[in-house]
Amino acid sequence: MTQPTDIRRVPAALTLAAHGVPVLPLRAGKGPFGNCRTCARNACGGRPNMKTPGPCACPYPCHAWAAATTDPHTLNSPQWASAWRTAAAVAYHPGGAGMTVVDLDNTAAITWARATLPATRTVPTTRGEHWIYEGVMQSVNAVKPGVDIKSLMSYARWLGPGTGTTAALPAAVCALAVKQPSTAHGAPQALTVPIKGQSGACPHRTPVYLDRGIAMAVQRITDAGSAVHATVYRAFLAVLSTHGRCGCLTEAHTARLFTAAQAKGESVRHCTDAWTNARTALGL
User: Fold this and answer.
1) 2/70: higher pLDDT
2) Which of 185, 100, 114, 212 is closest to 148 using CA atoms?
3) CA 36 → CA 26, 29, 40, 207, 219, distances in Å?
4) How is residue 102 annotated by DSSP?
5) How far, CA to CA in Å, does 185 sit from each of 179, 181, 182, 207?
6) CA gap 206, 95 in Å, rounded
7) pLDDT reading at 79 higher than 60
């Protein structure tokens, strides 16, 4: 009898899982395997539209990215065996591994990244490159022509470890997740809050002080297990109380804060309201 561990994709998946990288099989065409009969059309009630983890504990590789796991018993289970036998590739959940992948699909996108983003670990793909950063954010497709961001609630193909040293997730990537103001009819879904402070002169000695404050606020939001609304407001309040009266806050800084809040489920409107309320409380 053939054991699941004999399937050629499983050893690679087990190696990744042992290093804390949640993995799942991909069928031909780079798509995830469909839900089982019990979970079809989300009849199980879990993970609706694959946007949020739900109560479903299906033993099969269901719910796309949400099926990604580091559990060797699940990866080696009979329920996953048929998927591995026909799998075309191994995929992983970047956000679950604490990473963000900037997926560059063509030469123009690579040229833009080299001119704009800090160097980091790079993995060649069939059409371009994956630039991998340490840190998580919301996933967004088509942030620029040929550029997708894969992190939370997304998956990426495993194409090897790549080369180079993994850099911290830069503000320039986080800023890409914030939608630009719409010129079409309807309510704008963009960062439309005041940025500049009152004096226009920054009293801080170095930009490192501001960067550390933003990083601490982002971490506070990311670590929130409950009371996300209140945590976001307090984080915004802390940043503005220190940096809101000078001219050092930029759109890139606030984009990092908004991105962290949106990754925890906050809408752009909620972020804007929290920012405005914090400014009002401080008299800005």
Assistant:
1) 70
2) 100
3) 15, 19, 6, 52, 37
4) E
5) 15, 11, 8, 39
6) 31
7) yes
Collapse the DSSP code of 268 into the 3-class scheme (helix H, G, I; strand E, B; otherwise coil) and give the result. helix
Neighbouring residues of 106: CB distance < 8 A, sequence distance ≥ 6: 127, 128, 145, 146
- The tokens for 139 are 């996933």
Distance CA 190, CA 136 (A): 20
Is 60 exceeded by the pLDDT of residue 48?
A: no
- Reported residue count of the chain is 284
Q: Smallest Cα–Cα separation from 221: which of 180, 266, 156? A: 266
For residue 181, give both structure tokens: 């103001």
* Helix ranges (DSSP H) in the chain: 10-18, 72-75, 78-86, 107-116, 171-176, 207-222, 228-243, 251-263, 268-281
On whether the CB atoms of residues 123 and 164 are closer than 8 A, the answer is no
pTM of the model: 0.63
pLDDT tens, position by position, 126-160:
999 999 999 888 888 888 999 999 988 889 999 99
pLDDT-based confidence at 61, cuts 50/70/90?
very high
What is the arithmetic mean of pLDDT over 164-174?
Answer: 90
Burial class (CB in 10 A: 0-12, 13-18, 19+), 154: buried
Contact 196, 247 (CB under 8 A): yes
Which residue type sits at 140?
V
Averaged confidence pLDDT in the chain: 81
Distance CA 171, CA 256 (A): 6
Q: Of the segments 61-65, 70-74, 137-141, which one has the largest average pLDDT value? A: 70-74
Distance CA 67, CA 18 (A): 16
